Amino acid sequence: MSTAITADLSEPQPLHCYRHPERETWVRCGRCDQPICMKCAMDGPVGLRCKTCGKPSRDALASLRPTQIVIAAVLAVGGGAIVGYAGSSFSIFGLVVAFFGGGIIAEVIDRAIGIKRGPRILMIAVPGIVAGGLVGVGLSVLWTWQQMLSYGEEGAPGIFLSAYLMSVLPFALFAVVIAAGVAAARLR
């Protein structure tokens, strides 16, 4: 008693997309094995995926944990304070420091929290750099005021401080804006 097993060697029949039954396809989702047309296909990590399987559960570039938010804010404020202080200390050369400082701040934030992009990281980094920059400029002005009081005569420190503020303060504030702009361009 022998039973013969015969294989069906006829041509395979085309499949129909599960979302568009009128479309024939030869492609299946790499995860759920549903037939999909090229309109429904998405690039997956390995092969094509359907719209359901191809949609990530979370956006890895934009999602932030609370610890990452705190680290990014501290680095942005600290870096901004350094840029603001340097911008007010070096006057016109502070603009160059700010240009490179904004890039360095963005790189440090990137390396500390992982590569993150998008509006969430921008809403942390840019205001943090501006706030830190204003703190740095304020510390520089206070330090300069203290130095002028210790060396100046009666009434003279006020004149020197106002001249200092009019000559250096615009560069310092512009340096903070430059640093924030460079960091924003790097983190978008």
Explain how this protein is built:
- Helix content is 61%, strand content 4%.
- The chain has helices at 51-54, 66-89, 93-113, 119-151, 156-187; strands spanning 15-16, 24-25, 42-43, 48-49.
- The strands form two sheets. It has a two-stranded antiparallel ribbon. Strands 3-4 form a two-stranded antiparallel ribbon.
- A hairpin with a 4-residue loop joins β3 and β4.
- The chain is rod-shaped, with a radius of gyration of 30 Å.
- The termini are far apart.
- The model has no long low-confidence stretch (mean pLDDT 85).
Compact summary:
By secondary structure, this protein is mainly alpha-helical.
SSE arrangement:
Layout: E1 15-16, E2 24-25, E3 42-43, E4 48-49, H1 51-54, H2 66-89, H3 93-113, H4 119-151, H5 156-187
Antiparallel strand pairs: 1-2, 3-4
Helix pairs in contact: 2-3, 2-4, 2-5, 3-5, 4-5
Helix content: 55-70%
Distance between the termini: 74 Å
Query: What is the average per-residue confidence, as pLDDT, rounded to a whole number?
Result: 85
pLDDT < 50 stretches: none
Please give the largest β-sheet. Answer: 2 strands, antiparallel
Helical segment count = 5
Structure classification: mainly alpha
- The total beta strand count reads 4
